[in-house]
Write a structure and sequence with these properties.
The complex is a heterodimer of chains A (about 270) and B (about 290). Chain A contains eleven helices and two strands; from the N terminus they run αααααββαααααα. Chain A is mostly helical and about 270 residues long. In chain A, helix 8 packs across helix 10. The longest helix of chain A has about 30 residues. The N terminus of chain A is likely disordered. With about 290 residues, chain B is an alpha/beta fold. In chain B, about 50% of the residues are buried. The chains are: A mainly alpha (about 270), B alpha/beta (about 290). At the A-B interface, helix 8 and helix 10 of A face helix 2, helix 3 and helix 4 of B.
Chain lengths: ~270, ~290
């Protein structure tokens, strides 16, 4: 059944990582990504690998799930690797027709690939250990300062959580419309790409109409229950930092400092 | 003092053309007076397009009357400064259970109303617990609404309104999209709320079986109130109800047809049990003759 799909890709388990405040995990992911791109030396990559391995270990999520996310970027990764490999200038290692593979090219290509893989795995760790709800809550709270420059933070978070609630409903509806149209002889399978896209019209039009109707109903229901924006609103489940969250922040800071040092020393060592 | 007091209410739906000019107007509610006393269970009946849902939306100030006034708990719905107070004192439950649940978890949805009202956190939890228990959905508090049945979703929606501690609940065809079991579930919940918590209930429906327990039934047709009274009074006019394209409960219909066939039965029979009782009495009378 379509309604049974889990969104995002939350993997329920009982680990410290699951219990952490979503803001900590957001910050952690940011720190990790920054560290990947800011520090570019072999030593720094070893550091990042160790950190990632430790986090995966703590999360109690099977590695298989972490790697799932990689499937979707294989094409992108190949593209980056190929471009870097052939289009970087430097000392030529060997030639393939008019294309030259350089030493620098190999280096960047390898590092780029590692970076991309780590980026995806790093963010998977967050989405696998955080429920979509917590994630929205965390984002709302983390982005609150932006409210001062008139970014509608509460509204964005509300939209995200409503989207999360309605995705399964709309999926189910798509399924229903599809079957109804197929019963009348619609064909969603055969034909080329353009024909297939055209065939989607009898599916998309009713789906859009129903989505707008739902939006209208929902807006009315929200108003009827006194919704008038984020102002003067209290929270039923507010986010509060606990001891473990503070420790996690400290560890993150420690990681950043260590990475910085390792990178520096590694860099200097490379110079000598 | 009545909790809902509407005087000469009229409402026009406007059809605009592309320039925003009024192309045509259709009157959905026409000169309606409505009085509901606190603690009452009032049912509004009507065929599709009779204006019953439009009238209901006036009580929650979702729509404002084109003409006339609506007072809810002594507050004029035209008064914008009282808008949120009115929405708090008159809660509303809609037809489609999916389109009115906002939270991704049952308890979060019930807490949505109190959150909007700025109720302190501890009290929200207390209210959520009370209202989920009142509709019998407390065991489902940590479920996703997507996994509930239609009747259960509608009960969650009712709990969401109850958590705002309204004086009056307006239910706009809450059972129209449910199967018979779900319908019974919802109506039982609403009746219990009315009986135990003394919440005023305004139930809008076109199912006759749901209104036989109401204190008062109002029949609408083409935007006007055409009949009102106790269920027994209203259902004794079977011929008139048929003219408004309304069905009557089956037992009432059978009794009506039997009366026409010359069997002397009392007017306004509402349930199967009453019909059986009346028929037994009739048989005894004939045997005695």
């Amino acid at each position: 059944m379509l309604r049974d799909i889990t969104l995002g890709q939350y993997y329920p388990a009982n680990s410290v990582l699951h219990k952490l405040d979503p803001r900590v995990k957001l910050a952690g992911t940011m720190v990790f990504i920054v560290s990947l791109f800011a520090f570019r030396s072999a030593e720094a990559y070893i550091g990042a690998t160790l950190f990632l391995a430790a986090v995966i270990r703590i999360s109690k999520v099977p590695l298989k799930f972490m790697l799932k996310g990689l499937k979707s970027i294989i094409f992108l990764m190949m593209l980056t690797v190929v471009f870097n490999l052939f289009l970087t200038r430097g000392t030529v290692v060997f030639r393939l027709g008019f294309l030259a593979v350089t030493e620098e090219g190999i280096e960047t290509a390898v590092f780029m690939a590692i970076r991309l893989v780590y980026l995806i795995i790093g963010s998977s760790v967050m989405t696998l250990t955080t429920t979509p709800n917590d994630l929205t809550d965390g984002l709302e709270k983390a982005m609150r300062p932006l409210g001062k420059v008139r970014v509608p933070v509460h509204e964005i978070a509300m939209m995200m959580s409503i989207a999360l609630r309605f995705i399964p409903i709309l999926l189910e509806e798509t399924d229903k419309i599809m079957k109804a149209q197929m019963a009348r002889g619609a064909d969603f399978e055969s034909g080329g790409l353009i024909q297939k896209a055209k065939n989607m019209i009898p599916l998309l039009v009713p789906l859009f109409i129903s989505a707008f109707r739902r939006a209208n109903d929902l807006a009315m229901a929200m108003e009827a229950r006194g919704y008038h924006g984020g102002e003067g609103r209290t929270k039923m489940k507010p986010l509060v930092y606990r001891g473990r969250d503070k420790i996690a922040y400290l560890l993150l800071l420690l990681y950043l400092v260590l990475m910085f040092l390792v990178n520096r020393i590694g860099f200097f060592a490379g110079l000598i | 003092m009545g909790i809902i007091k509407a005087r000469h209410v009229a409402f026009d739906y406007l059809r605009m053309d592309e320039e925003g000019q009024v192309e045509s107007r259709s009157r959905a509610v026409d000169d309606v007076d409505l009085d509901v006393e606190a603690g009452d269970f009032v049912a509004i009946l009507g065929h599709n397009g009779s204006g019953k849902s439009t009238l209901a939306k006036h009580i929650n100030a979702i729509l404002l009357p084109t003409e006339g006034t609506v007072f809810v708990d002594g507050k004029d719905t035209q008064d914008e400064s009282k808008l949120w107070e009115i929405r708090q004192s008159a809660g509303m439950v809609f037809q489609n259970p999916d389109n009115q649940i906002i939270g991704t978890i049952v308890d979060e949805d019930v807490g949505f109303g109190p959150e909007n009202m700025g109720v302190p956190q501890d009290e929200i939890w207390q209210r959520v617990e009370e209202s989920l228990k009142a509709v019998g959905m407390w065991e489902y508090r940590s479920h996703s609404p997507n996994k509930l049945s239609g009747g259960q979703k509608q009960r969650v929606a009712i709990a969401g309104v109850v958590a705002m501690r309204p004086k009056c609940i307006v239910l706009d065809e809450p059972t129209a999209m449910l199967d018979p079991n779900g319908r019974q579930e919802v109506i039982r919940t609403v009746r219990e709320l009315n009986r135990r918590e003394h919440v005023t209930v305004l139930l809008i429906t076109h199912y006759m079986e749901e209104v036989i327990h109401a204190d008062k039934v109002i029949v609408m047709d083409q935007g006007k109130i055409v009949m009102q009274g106790t269920p027994r009074e209203v259902f004794s006019h079977v011929g008139e109800l048929k003219r408004f394209r309304l069905d009557v409960p089956q037992a009432t219909l059978v009794a009506y047809e039997l009366q026409k066939a010359g069997i002397a039965l009392p007017d306004g029979i509402l349930s199967n049990e009453e019909l059986i009782g009346a028929l037994e009495a009739y048989r005894k009378k004939r045997q005695n003759k």
